[in-house]
C-alpha cells in the first residue's frame, strides 16, 4: 500500500491516471486531477448516496485537508 500524498489519510493509486482512492477512510474518498477544473476531492456513502459531496481545489494537499474534516478515518501507528 502506498500513501501518495504523505498525509494521515492514506491514498493509493488506481488503474486510472490521476485518480486516487483512500485506503483508511470510513467512506469511499477520492482525489482526482481534472485538466479543466484542477484537483477534485469527493466522498460518498455507497449505502446512502445522499451522504456525498465533492469540491475542487488548486492543490491535492487542500483536497486531503478538506476530506479529513468530512470523513472519519483510521490511523495505524508503527512501533519502533
Helices and strands, with pairings:
Layout: E1 11-13, E2 19-22, E3 28-34, E4 38-45, E5 48-57, H1 60-70
- Shape category: globular
Number of strands: 5
Sequence of strands across the biggest β-sheet: 1-2-3-4-5
Helix count equals 1
- Count of distinct structural domains: 1
Q: What's the overall average pLDDT, rounded?
A: 89
Q: Main beta sheet, described?
A: 5 strands, antiparallel
User: Share of helix among residues?
Assistant: 10-25%
Distance between the termini: 19 Å
Main structural class:
mainly beta
Encode the helix/strand succession as letters: EEEEEH
Approximately how much beta-strand content do the residues carry? 35-45%
- Rg, Å, rounded: 12 Å
Give start-end ranges of low-pLDDT stretches. Answer: none
Task: Pick out its properties.
single chain, 80 residues, mainly beta, five-stranded antiparallel β-sheet, 14% helix, globular
Walk me through this protein's architecture.
By secondary structure, the chain is mainly β. It has one domain. It contains one helix and five strands; from the N terminus they run βββββα. It has one helix at 60-70; strands at 11-13, 19-22, 28-34, 38-45, 48-57. The chain starts with 10 loop residues before the first strand and ends in a 10-residue tail after the last helix.
